[in-house]
Amino acid sequence: MVVAPPGSNVETDQRPGLNRLARLLARATPAVMGVLNVTPDSFSDGGRFIEPPNALEQARRMISEGADILDIGAESTRPYGGAKAVAIDEEMRRLAPILPAAVALGIPVSIDTMKASVAEWALASGAAVINDVWGLQRDGDMAAVAAKHGAPVIIMHNRQHADPSIDIMADISGFFARSLRIAESAGIARDQIVLDPGIGFGKTPQQSLIAIARLRELKSFGLPLLVGASRKRFIASVSPAPPDQRLGGSIAAHVLAVANGAAIIRTHDVAETVQAVRVAAAIASMR
User: Fold this and answer.
1) Which of 3.40.50.720, 3.20.20.20, 2.40.33.20, 2.60.120.260 is the CATH number of 17-284?
2) What is the tens place of the pLDDT at every residue in 228-253?
3) pTM for this structure?
């Protein structure tokens, strides 16, 4: 379970959402993380929320729909290639009018970034969690930043390219083992870590399906699991549809992910996902 750093106080901690995050991960029902992309080129909603008023309206909407956490990113990390690299200054310029205001809305905010300097700025601005799509293995300073701030970190599995010939579960496990060694060396407490198998990232559609079907194998690490299958391409490989018409597939994947052990679901469609996981949890409780 993710916990607040030693000595932190709910009244004085610069990241007041941190204590609430710990409580979310201690409860029986999964937490729902709402995705807020402040980029012009996100695969699912590119450009819709690049303007601060639109971004903050969306943040408020997701909270009203039941989001437990907001995940804010200002550089597209879309898993299928073609995203443009964003300079550090530009990434922070996009975040500056949005992230602190989103923090003020009162729920934990996660910063979705691959850059340690952006993560450090975000944590100083009130973000509670680092969400690193390269699992501490791309920017050599990321683990040190997390340790310095006592911030929980989401370690996501990734690959530069998909390889259909590999055992994807073995690859994910090996990646996590390397990331956890990096985290330990930096002084990140193990109970500050969440693991994400990285649905769609460096995987074929079939491998993404396998990662959800065999998610429970990753419980061997003894850490909370996050799954973000929302609108991903693997859904279209089963039932062809553009990203904004993959809600049914997203919910199916997320409900099964929860059944297989996911503690956090990352989604663009908060209201529908909250309803789905709550109903699934209620049904499961009747067994």
Assistant:
1) 3.20.20.20
2) 999 999 999 999 999 999 999 999 99
3) 0.90
